[in-house]
Write a structure and sequence with these properties.
With about 80 residues, this protein is mainly alpha-helical. About 85% of the residues lie in helices and about 0% in strands. It contains two helices and no strands.
Length: about 80
């Protein structure tokens, strides 16, 4: 009787261990997946920074044209 109970306990432990392995998965694969996601986010941020910089340059250019036009009191589109 004692042996059969021990066998049941071992079976329960094995089942719990199997369930834990399924939940944890392969940590190396998960870390690799996170590395890829971080790399993608870095690239997206670089693209956004570039877009923001271009918008700032365009705004600064427009402001310079406006100030120079006011300085010479002429519309740059007039001949």
């Amino acid at each position: 009787m004692r042996f059969s109970r021990l066998r049941l306990d071992v079976t329960a432990v094995k089942a719990d261990l199997t369930a834990a392995r399924v939940q944890v998965g392969n940590p190396e694969q998960k870390v690799s997946g996170l590395d890829e996601k971080v790399d993608q986010l870095v690239e997206e941020m670089r693209g956004l920074n570039s877009m923001i910089l271009n918008v700032k340059i365009d705004r600064n250019h427009a402001k310079l044209v406006e100030l120079l036009t006011a300085l010479v009191s002429r519309d740059p589109n007039e001949n």
